[in-house]
Amino acid sequence: MRTCLRRALIAVLALLIASAALWVGAPPAAAHRDGCHRWHSCPSDTGSYICGDLGYFTYCGYSSLPSSDSGSGAEDEEADDIEAPDRPRTKSAKAVAGGRVTVIVTAEKGSRIEVRDAEDSVVRRATATGSAQTVTFKAKDGDHTYSVVAVDSADNASEASEEFSVTVDASRPEAGKPVVTAADAVTGAVQVSFEAEAGARYEVSVEGRKEQLSGTVGDGGMVRDSLWLPNGSYRLTAVVRDEVGNRTRTEVAATVSLGKLRPQVRVEPPVGGGTTQVEVTGPPGAAGIVSAEGEFEPVRLDSDGHGAVSISVDDGSHRVLVNLNDAFGRSGTGSSGTFTVDTIPPALKLAYDAERAKYGDVVLTVTGERGARLALSGAGEKRSVTLGEERRTFRWHASPGNYKLVARLIDAHGNINRTDVTVHVSDDWTVARIRNALLWTAGVVLVLVVGGFLLWQRRRAVIAWWARRRENARMAAEQRAARVRAARQEADARRHREALRRAQEAYERELADWQRTRDGLAADHDFVRQLRGTEYSAADFRWGARKRDERVLLIASASLVEVRTRQGVSHTENTGAGEIAVTDKRVLFAGVAGRREWAYGKWLHHEHHEGAAQTLIRVSNRQKTSGVAYGYGEAPKVRLAIDLALAQAQGRHGEVVHGARAALEAHDRKRPTAPTGD
Which one of 116, 406, 538, 589 is separated from 640 by 20 to 30 angstroms, measured CA to CA? Predict the structure, then answer.
């Protein structure tokens, strides 16, 4: 019995030892735990499956896949992360109050957002949320251009976002202290005026009351607005905000003391009948009574302080009174003064002379009101006059026929009277007119006969006189022709002398221009041939670290130029004054904006802008194009020095010297020719 029990215990112990050995030595079998099966699909428990072949190690007991060739479970080296984040997106960039800039950025979640300026300096960092987020940072006053870069945990930097430009303004807007005038007796208004920055928004509030003013400051930089307040003492506060939200606050004390109102009354009398229109001006919302000759009408003024009513009065002289009360209990009376109502048309009468009309004459007599305006038309005539007297006569000749004469009379009050008359015009011949016509005809015939007889009696003298007259005319014509020829020859000679003088002056100008150009080309040729440069010591080399055997060819005053992009349009901007040095190895700039170097060994392209006196340079070690601006007087030598130094560095020095000599020789062949006297 004991032997059997001992054997059973030994078998159980052997089984436990075998199970422990299998657990330790076989990773595939050990991997098949519940947690692992939740992440992987294992085909069998035979040990042929390595849990984690899909790249998952969670709950499997490994930090990496076991080695397939050694089976030792050693971890593979983790691969390096070299993939950069996606390019960030930006929108709604704007400058706000206090010199701050806000921009909405969308970047890869967990990456580091870096806002960089035009100098590629980081001005703000933030952690990306993966969705659109607002990034805020401060900047100095002026125009700035920024871009956004996303950097992951492995320091891989994304492509820079599209550039955005803002104009930063941290200065408070200008605003003067408000000036408050006394209340106007007509409108009850208190005028508030002050100077402020043009285009800014303003708000004026009254302590303890709801009345306030708001609006935009005009181009003149002056605010003038009105308030309506009851009598009393107040404190007014004016707040001016510029476009980005900077604000300036000013205060002033004011006292309103208005005893009586004096509303204005304007009357428009009726024309030809109707009612009289009365317009009242006073405080907005005021109410009262308009009265005239026993007629009473209520009136209430609108928000602009105007009201109108109609009253009926008879013809004659009248006066309108207005009693008005404003919203604050103040009252007053206004009067229109005396006015006249006249609705009766002016008297008008026409009469014509029928006897004179028989012989083609229209004689019309007009009787009407003195001072009225008369318009008369008909029978081929139009007249417009003011009657100085009550009666006036008009006369004119007309062809035979029947005519309708129309007269229109307007008095000083606009009343109109119109009347017409029909006139018959004929052209009858009287005995006297026939006798006169025959006598005139007989007289003409007698004069012709007598004149002809006298000419026949003296025909020889007349013929001789006519011959002398023709000869004198011929000689006078020849003399005139001779004078004309002489004048023409003199004019031709004068024009030739003037043309020769102008040609000589033009030749002298062209020769002077040619000589100036030649002097410049000769100076450029000598500059190219003799340019050797100066070798400065390291202590005197003020443009940075001096290179070995480096010689300075030219020094000139200049400004650093950067190429900016704003709203998709590129432009150049001078960022600081300084000095340019052209050496045999590079172009250097030193100034308030720092130092800049363009080495000939990294030179890609350069472009001289003659109109702007600039040279823009692109090199392989700098992403953006930059350059220098210099004075117009130094421009030729600066450009020539840069071209020559670059040519020397590239082994093309002879081409530059030959080009300068060829330009000089070509210019010599273009020397102007002096004009001749032919």
Answer: 538
